């Protein structure tokens, strides 16, 4: 079942000259797929993720989520859709350093207006599923890179989104942690039918993907 479709996406930036970060991308993602978006630095991976996730608006083209066009939505409607339907794992992780792992993962549920008891159930469940209960009361500075990455994934999936967009999630991890994170995301895609689109140039990721999209100079050159 198709959950996301992009048609003719272009994203240009003007900085003296015109930079074609994304240059006419069309793609479709199905429920439960684990897809790697592969390309070198500067190929347009992050910009494409941002457009697909409604963080940036395209210069041209349309994005549909569950058949509904999101590129024509107002900012408020788009923000609510991101909160309910999407999860994000950023390269910089964006965990709040003064909050515990539990509090970081709980944040999306607070923004969604989920009650305290239900929040506790949902956060506890995702911590058990990912095997990170022992991190619950730790703050990010007291965690390793791999532990922080697991918490970031937990925060992205706690509300069981339709689609998770992950930007270089293994960039700063050793092989053991990188493979563990990838396998964890693959398992979630199978068991919960969450679709993952992972931007990467890490072979540890794309060799384990069910599908690989190669991007070069802002264009998909292979699927």
Could you characterize what this model shows?
The chain is an alpha/beta fold. It has a single domain (30-57, 72-222), classed as P-loop containing nucleotide triphosphate hydrolases (Rossmann fold, 3-Layer(aba) Sandwich). The chain is 36% helix and 30% strand. The chain is built from seven helices and ten strands. The chain has a six-stranded mixed sheet with strand order 6-7-8-3-9-10, sandwiched between helices. Strands 2-1-4-5 form a four-stranded antiparallel sheet. The mean pLDDT is 92.
In short, what is this structure?
This protein has 223 residues and is α/β, with parallel strands linked by helices.
**Number of E strands:** 10
Q: In the CATH scheme, what's the topology name?
A: Rossmann fold
Kindly report the name of the CATH homologous superfamily: P-loop containing nucleotide triphosphate hydrolases
Spatial separation of the terminal alpha carbons: 18 Å
Strand content: 25-35%
Widest sheet: strand order? 6-7-8-3-9-10
Low-confidence stretches: none
Q: CATH class, anyone?
A: Alpha Beta
Alpha carbon gyration radius? 17 Å
- How is the biggest beta sheet arranged? 6 strands, mixed
Quick tags:
6-stranded mixed beta sheet, 223 residues, alpha/beta
Topology:
Elements: E1 2-15, E2 17-30, E3 34-38, H1 45-52, E4 60-65, E5 68-69, H2 75-85, E6 86-89, H3 101-111, H4 116-130, H5 145-157, E7 163-167, H6 175-192, E8 195-200, H7 203-206, E9 211-216, E10 219-222
Helix pairs in contact: 3-4, 3-5, 4-5, 5-6
């Amino acid at each position: 079942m198709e959950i996301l479709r992009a048609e003719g996406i272009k994203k240009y930036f003007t900085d003296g000259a015109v930079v074609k970060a994304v240059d006419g991308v069309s793609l479709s993602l199905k429920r439960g797929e684990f897809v790697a978006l592969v390309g070198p630095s500067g190929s347009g991976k992050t910009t494409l993720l941002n457009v697909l996730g409604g963080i940036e608006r395209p210069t041209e083209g349309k994005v549909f989520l569950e058949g509904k066009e999101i590129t024509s939505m107002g900012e408020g409607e788009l923000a609510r859709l991101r909160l309910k339907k999407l999860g994000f794992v950023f390269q910089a992780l964006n965990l709040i350093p003064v909050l515990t792992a539990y509090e970081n993962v709980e944040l999306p549920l607070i923004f969604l207006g989920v009650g305290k008891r239900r929040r506790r159930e949902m956060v506890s469940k995702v911590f058990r599923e990912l095997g990170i209960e022992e991190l619950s009361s730790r703050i990010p500075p007291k965690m390793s890179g791999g532990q922080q990455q697991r918490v970031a994934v937990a925060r992205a999936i706690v509300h069981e989104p339709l689609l998770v967009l992950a930007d270089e999630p293994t960039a700063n991890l050793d092989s053991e942690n990188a493979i563990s994170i990838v396998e964890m995301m693959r398992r979630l895609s199978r068991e919960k039918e969450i679709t993952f689109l992972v931007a990467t140039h890490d072979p540890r990721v794309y060799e384990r993907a069910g599908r690989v999209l190669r991007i070069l100079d802002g264009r998909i050159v292979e699927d």
